[in-house]
Amino acid sequence: MEPNETTKLLLKLVESAEQLDALLTRETAHQEVFQPHNTALRSQLEQFAVELILLSPGDYGRAAEELLWTKVYYDLKSLRKIKGALVDRESPEGAYREHFKNGIHVYHRLFFSVQAQFDLKLDNYIYWPSSQPWSQAKRAGSPSVEEMDWARKFCHRCLLRIGDLYHYLKDFTDSGEKQAKRYYYRALSLLPDMGLPFMHLATLSGAKFYYVEATCFYQCCLYSKVPHAGAILGLEQIYLEIEEEYRRLPRGPQGKLGPEQKAREDVGRLLVSFVYLQSLLTPNGRRHPELESLCESVLDDLELCLSYLSIQEGQGWARGPGAEQKRGSLLPNQVVFQMVILCLLTLENLKKAKSEVSKTALSFSLMFFSLIVRLLGWNIQAALQRRLAPGREERLEPKTEKPWLEEAWPELPAPQRASVNAGELSGSEREPRFSVAPPGPEDSWEDSEPMDISEPDGTWDSYRVLDDSEDSGDVSFCSLPDSDSSFSEGLSREREVERPSEEDAIGSSWTLPNAQALQERLEILCAEGLLPALRVILQWLASQPAL
To answer: N or C: which end of the chain has fewer CB within 10 A?
Structure first.
């Protein structure tokens, strides 16, 4: 296309956008948005934008891409959000749903067209048989490095736009959120250095699990090679909200609660306190007076709440920011994984800033990790007992005085139950884990290698574990190394108290045919949902020779 023709096409596109802007300024915009004239206007703008994107990439095409998204889809979503029930009442039934579905189809075709033009071989990123590209012809000549870079980034943005449209469809279909996550992760797979998909995942998570998911995604965005400044604002807003939530937590006894209600209260307190603790462990922050006591409280609550990991198909959250979790575990494995990731990212940020709270954060994280690893060991031991030696668990210690713990985790041997009960002791009854002294020269760990929480090949499945524990990965089992620091004494004391007896241990005396025994053990290990958490803990420990 000649330059003057391209300019004319751009002018037509801008004119259509201005007419749509004029529509949105009217008081009756929610009544007129789907009238035939305005629907035709959006279709016309879409046609002009697609032509410019395909004919003038990286130049006018970038402006056309922005106008296509803003004027045809984002503005309508904003109008529906502002007008609320008025829009749904005045618009034809299902109009918004069909409009956003059509948008998914448009971006699919754009994706296929650009990847075909530049021969990017990205067909496996989208499966949509009915979507045919507008053009399957390859570009004449060899594209430049700049053009190839534009094409990959454009396909990356297409995946994000498809994810956003599924996010908008969350109000209309149950599969909207799941599909949105899928495309955000595929965008991460295509360009792993970009932090923007984490921003979208954080927005999609909202207040779920008292902001643990959103906080994790925002931190991952900031830790990316190409971070997005919006994550800072998102974290600030979360920290303001979570501080208010923390101040509203009930203090002292709450009276007699049923098992499910008590479980919700315990896990809610853990998640709120944990995110509030993250807000205090910031590189530019100063030592807070309640920091050490808060660390103790979070660890005690974690010790108490780990039993809820095995409650499946419960009633979930009934109120509060966790209300999105209707059913399933109160403390899912992926949330525990995200808490581990947050601990690691916080440690990295504090280390870079040489913060005075680094020592406290390190001590807290090691204790936190030790609880997770201990729980994983008990899970595997209990599963092996049930599978390889049926009936053996009947010889375990008698039940504790807390039947709700027994129902949540009936197979645990006595030492683990004792450790869970210990989580309810008051601060005065427990030996403190933390030193309030500022770090000294001997506590430095600056020479350690930088943390790497992603897969070396950058495949998108490596990110799924941030909210989906299906990807257990290749995990090597080994003992955590004892540290020469002051933390080792506390960890050693816990190991001495909680080490299972020989009677309860999984011994070599259990004999099965070798092939069958190996298969049984592999199935048990692969089914353990905390393996991804163990994997990143071991990766981090391996990169910290000073510990």
So the answer is: N
Q: What is the sign, positive or negative, of the torsion defined by CA atoms of 242, 234, 163, 334?
A: negative
**Is 11 a member of any domain?**
no
In the predicted model, what is the mean pLDDT of residues 485-491?
37
Mean pLDDT of 39-46: 94
The total number of structural domains in the chain stands at 1
**459 within a domain of the structure (yes/no):** no
Give the separation between CA 489 and CA 470, rounded to whole angstroms. Answer: 35
SS3 for 256-298, per residue?
CCCHHHHHHHHHHHHHHHHHHHHHHCCCCCCCCCCHHHHHHHH
The residues pairing with 441 across neighbouring beta strands, listed in sequence order, are none
Report yes or no: 308 and 500 within 8 Å, Cβ to Cβ: no
DSSP 475-529: ----PPPPPSSTHHHHHHHHHHHHPPPTTTS--TT----HHHHHHHHHHHHHT-T
* β-sheet bridge partners, residue 226: 194
Mean pLDDT of 295-318: 71
> What is the domain extent for residue 266?
249-314+330-387+525-546
More confident residue, 511 or 118: 118
Q: Is residue 409 part of a domain?
A: no
Distance CA(461)–CA(21), nearest Å, equals 40
3 state DSSP class of 226: strand
* Angle at alpha carbon of residue 190, lines to 464 and 43, rounded to 5°: 105
CA distance 395 to 391: 8
Residue 328 half-sphere exposure toward CB, CA atoms < 13 A? 11
Q: How far is CA 288 from CA 148, 279, 282, 436, in A?
A: 50, 11, 11, 11
Chain segment 384-409, per-residue pLDDT in tens? 877 766 655 444 443 333 333 333 33
Q: Is 286 a residue whose pLDDT tops 60? A: yes
pLDDT of the residue at 65 = 94
**490 and 433 Cβ atoms separated by less than 8 Å:** yes
Taking the C-alpha atoms of residue 350 and residue 344, their distance in angstroms, rounded to an integer, is: 10
| Domain-embedded: residue 62 | no
Q: What is the mean pLDDT of residues 455-482?
A: 39
Identify residue 300 by its one-letter amino acid code: D
Distance of alpha carbon 276 from its chain centroid, rounded? 17
User: Contact 506/415 with Cβ under 8 angstroms?
Assistant: no
Q: Which of 79-88, 200-209, 418-427 has the highest mean pLDDT?
A: 200-209
